[in-house]
Design a protein that fits this description.
The longest helix has 19 residues. Helix 4 packs across helix 7 and helix 10 crosses helix 12. This protein is 25% helix and 19% strand. A hairpin with an 8-residue loop joins strand 6 and strand 7. It contains 12 helices and 18 strands. It has a 6-stranded mixed beta sheet with strand order 2-15-14-18-16-17, with helices on both faces. Strands 1-12-11-10-13 form a 5-stranded parallel beta sheet, sandwiched between helices. The protein starts with a strand and ends in a 5-residue tail after the last helix. With 443 residues, it is α/β, with parallel strands linked by helices. It binds iron/sulfur cluster (SF4) (2 copies).
Length: 443
Amino acid sequence: MIKAIKSFRGGIKPGHHKVTAELETVKMPLPSKVVIPMLQHIGAPCMPLVKKGDRVLVGQKIGDSEQMIAAPVHSSVSGTVTDVRPVLYSTGVEVMAVEIKPDGLQEVHESVAPPVYTDKEGLLRSIRESGLVGLGGAGFPTCVKLSPPPGKVLDVLVINGAECEPYITSDYREMMENPEGIVEGTKRVMEITGVAKAFIAIEENKPLAIESISSLIKDGDNIEVVSLATRYPQGGEKQLIYTVTGRRVPVGKLPADVGVLAQNVATVAFIANYLKTGMPLIKKKVTIDGGAAANPMNVEVLIGTPLKEVFEFCGGFCEEPRKIIMGGPMMGVAQYSLDNSVLKQTNALLAFNENQAVETKESVCIRCGKCVAACPMSLMPLYINANVMRGNFEETMKYHVNDCMECGCCSYVCPASRHLVQSMRQAKAELRKLAARKQGGKN
Ligand code: SF4
Ligand code: SF4
C-alpha cells in the first residue's frame, strides 16, 4: 500500500454518517413488479424491444439503441410485460419504461452465457451487450470509456474505491464482500485496454478494505493500493486522478487526454463476474439510510424495483420522510415519487427526516470567499450565482460554469446559505437551451 502523491484543491470534510458500513449486504426478494426505464445512462435512450403481453426471462435484452453512447437494458426478472409506457425518470425527464410482473420462477434467458470473443473488438462488443455503465453514480456506458478515441494512449488505470460521500457504503460492502472480484476485474480491464499499471484508490478511513484488497495483490500484478486522505470530493474523477497520478486533466478535457482510465470498484467487479457468467447488469448493491429509514442497511436489489418496495423491505419509515434522495446528500437527486425505480447507477436511497432536510433561507452574499476556497474545480461560485440571479446566463460561461461537477462544496460552506449548486444547474440547463436554439433545435 502506498500513499497518494498529491492533494487536490478545495473540498470539505462533512460528517461521514456511515452507520451501515459493517452490515453485510442482504438480498431483497422478488418485488411485486419491476419498472425498467429505457434510459439509465448518459447518452441516447433505448427503444423497447418487447411489447405488452410478452413473456420475458432474466437477462433478456428488452431495450437497445443504435447510438454509440448508449447501453442496452435487460429484464431483471422472468415474467410478463404488463405495460410499455412513458414514465417520469428520477430527474423529472419523461422516458419509456417496460413494466414486468414477475412469475417467481427467475428463469434465465438462453443468451446468458460467458461471452465468446476472438479479439478486443469482440470483447468490447460483449461488454456493451452486458448493459454496463459506470456504477459509481455517473452512468456513462463503460464500453465507450474502455475505447479511447483514436490517437489517445492509456497507460494508467485508476480504480475508484474512495466512496467519499456521506452515508453511502455500497462500494465499501463490495470491497469487503467481493475483493477477489475487484482485483480480478482490475486485471481484466488492464488486459482489455493494454494498460500496464493500475492503482486501486481507497480512502484511509476504510482500513479493512485496504487490507483485504492489498492481501490479494501479488508481485508482478502491477497493481498498487493507494491510501487517500478522507476528504470530499476525493472520488471526483479529476480529483482522484490528480491525487493518485499527479496528472491534471485540463479544463474541457477527458482523463484519456492525460493517458488515464478511471473506473469504479463495483464496475470492475461486475466485469469480472460478467466474463465468467454472461449475466448482464440486472441488480445493484444499494445503501438505505437517513433519519426516517427504520433500518439502515445495504441491500442487493433488482434493477427496476420500485423505491417504495425497497423501503418496505427495509422496515419502512420510523418517521415521515421529508425528502427521499437517490444517491448521496451532496450529489444525489431528490425523488418526487416512491414509485420511481432503482436504476443501474443507484448506489444509495436516503430518507431524510424533518431535521435533515431543513429548507435554508438565503441571505445576501457577504463576499467571504469561502465558496471559492472550497471549490475543487477552482470556480467562482459567487459570481456565477450573481449572474444567474440577474438572468445573465451567457455571462456564466466566462466563469466556466460547465466545469462545475455539482459537488455541492460551495453550498455546504456558504454562511449565507446561497443556493449555489442550484445556480450552477440552472445556468448549465439555460446554456444547453441557448445552444439548442442557436442550432435551430427545439426545447
Ligand atoms: S460563500 Fe456564500 S457568502 Fe461567501 S462569497 Fe460565497 S456565496 Fe458569498
Ligand atoms: S458545486 Fe460546482 S461550483 Fe460548487 S464547489 Fe462544486 S464544482 Fe465548485
